[in-house]
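Hey,
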Amino acid sequence: MNFQLIGVNHNSAPVGLREKLAIPQFCLPEALQELVQHPGIAGGLILSTCNRVEVMVETKDKGADLRTFLRDYLGTDPAEVEPHLYECRQRDAIHHLFRVTASLDSMVVGEPQILGQVKQAYATARAAGTISSRLEQLFTRAFAVAKRVRTETAVGSRAVSVASVAVELAQNIFGSLENRQVYLVGTGKMGKLAARHLIARGASSIFVSSCSYDRATHLAAAINGKAIRFEELYDTCDLADIVITSTAAPHAIFRREHGELFLKRRHNRPMFFIDISVPRNVDPEMNKVNGIFVYDMDDLQRTVAEHVANRRKEAERAEEIVDAEVERFQSGLQTLDVVPTIIRLQERTENIRQAEIDHIRGRLGQLSPAQESAIDALTRGIVNKLMHSPISVLKTAAREADADTLLPLVERLFHFPDKETVESDLESGGHTVAFRVPERDNQFGRHFKAGGRRSKA
């Protein structure tokens, strides 16, 4: 097991550098082919998003120079990139991947987009033929870990931005945002973001009004809305279920009397005001009108803080899940590492056992089925007892990460030959290796001919 990862993300590198390292989706197959042709790489995957660019590989031996790959493929200046790179190997690489896939390494912890992005990167690498069998196991487990985190924790269940919190509150008030109409007053960035969130949740019409009709028209076109002149604001505002204010006005533009007028025109159907302006655009007195719900920046920030605190607690639980899954996955891989050696050990001893039975059979002559069965059971029991301890030690070493040290030693102790050498030795009748039956087995042979039970020496 040799996993290696190198990359940059939103924590380690500024956006300008991430832009230089980003690899467009249509270029990934070519980049992946160049990656696996790099010395020492058995398979690889490239994850390139707005917040991170990471290269994950399985290496053939001790490792690969991934910095050289980045320099050669992307043509980057090492002096510019090096201070921002992070590199992980083995367990650390597994741990990093699991955290990324579970959205614990995201700018907004718990956001759902990263899982889809990792799955897309994995699909691209599979289509390009660069996913090795071990990487296949690794990413399959990473997706399962992400699912477990989502199922067993609430790390992604609560909004953590002002815009998303505003939408969540609106949904709480109306139950569903399907076909709700939204009025965006002002063209501030956060107001636009909140409007986009509302549209994503099913809101239908978007009206846009601003003191600059040109800016209102431009924004309305961008979000498929309708621009309304600012002087028509009070005559049209009651059309909306949700009003988002984000103007630079130094005073309130909505007062209590406006709220009472709007409700009268709406036949007391509720209205929700999201005031993202500082100074506030909505007079707090409007909140006293039955059917009018007003949330300002303090309300929204307070809700965000509560959600962040809750998400932080859930993230701690998620980290525990990731840690446990890393240990489980690594233990499974290490156990797989010793399986070929255990199989070779069993084959080696079985070949020796059969060769010795053939040898002694020639000296004993014709044996009855009962005698053949007794010899087989006796020799098999001896071999099993002798091999029980070495095999148990190998399995324990795998769980304790000592396999890399022990496997070469076992191969030396038991003189594992190449497969061709074993076949040649057996074909020629050679059986000069360990476990030869001692000379006193002549008595043993005579005893079996007589069909009696051997007495204790």
